[in-house]
Amino acid sequence: MSSTELPSVPPTSVLPKAASVRVAEGERLRSVGLPGVSLTIRSRPPARAGLEPALYVHGLGGSSQNWSAMMALLDGVVESEAVDLPGFGDSPPPDDGNYSITAHARAVIRYLDAQERGPVHLFGNSLGGAVSTRVAAVRPDLVRTLTLVSPALPELRVQRTAVPTGLLGMPGVAALFSRFTREWTAEHRVRGVMALCYGDPGRVTPEAFRHAVEEMERRLQLPYFWDAMTRSARGLVNAYTLGGQHGLWRQAERVLAPTLLIYGGRDQLVGFRMAQKAARSFRDCRLLTLPNAGHVAMMEYPETVATAFKELLAETSSAAEPGTGAVSGALSERTGRSAGAGS
């Protein structure tokens, strides 16, 4: 093992089971075994037969719970499932310890292929936005539409507030941070995360805060918690350095699916200025900007995001009908001013 490598975690079979993951009313969890990974899938029973499938992919340090509000709002619109990426939520680490963007995308593809679930309406936030972009680029047959909330695509000038997250992927930093913060309570940690990820942490209800603290306490018990965070952060940084056909911006240009981009004006992790570059890169794109939202608009303003997706769904359904005269590839830019999202 070189000095830059992280210590390996115990095999999945010997990892202790942590406290139970929270399941909201109407949700259910199941585990799906795939080559090299085991994924936990959060789902809601379809409101009726014949709904098109949707799959939601969370960001760094998140889980399928990040999409619970959105999934509930889209009952009767799509058949919703959210994945816990390997090493996050209730999914154990991957067998090979690979947390790269490509590996996460491979896990999503393997799940969709195994379940014969595609094409899906694919949603991604932050790291999950980069993963979803790669899935849509390399397997267009699996993606019906693409909705990206603050996707973690490469930036030339990274925001100062995002630097610590990138540094987490540096050798030794996670261990140092773990030692430095060992006296921090789960409540302290959650307040820090919410201050970083929300445009207005005051929008978090006391119940949601309590659930987040309980989840943080559960995660801190996991022996692979910091390993998964560190390796995924490193995988994201490495993806930023890739050029050519494997570069994320080049892959964004290859996406064929109608795409909805959502950016928050108070995002401290993904630069708001990247919204226009992203809108120019995805060929069939709509852009929604929410001036008061932070990094997790689907959690801060789920009604606004759900409405925007319904509009995308209605537009693409109409475009698929002969004789509608819909033009593909048009950019529709709107500034969110409903549900408290406006300035």
UniProtKB/TrEMBL annotation:
Question: What UniProt keywords are attached to this protein's entry?
Answer: Hydrolase
GO MF terms on file? monoacylglycerol lipase activity
Which parts of the sequence belong to the AB hydrolase-1 domain? 55-307
| A single BP term in Gene Ontology | acylglycerol catabolic process
The UniProt transmembrane annotation reads none
Q: Does the keyword Acyltransferase apply?
A: no
- Write out the GO cellular component annotations: membrane
Q: Has UniProt tagged this entry with the keyword Hydrolase?
A: yes
Name of protein: Alpha/beta hydrolase
What organism, scientifically named, is this protein from? Answer: Streptomyces aurantiogriseus
